[in-house]
Specification:
transmembrane helix; elongated; about 85% helix; about 70 residues; mainly alpha; 2 helices
Length: about 70
Amino acid sequence: MNFTYLIEGTLFGLIVLLLGLAGGSFFTMATLKRPAEGSSLVESRIEFGFYGVASLVFAGLLTGILS
């Protein structure tokens, strides 16, 4: 029973981290002013949007495993 709680706690922690990463990616995408050298603003926003959506998808998959 303790091993099951360990797995559930680990999955819950990963879900929380992925949701935080998604929120940070979307916030960065929305407030990005000047990207790094050699890339355009649109490229950087698309990249951060992709990271945010991918994080939400993985959090959803882990939620499905957990439930």
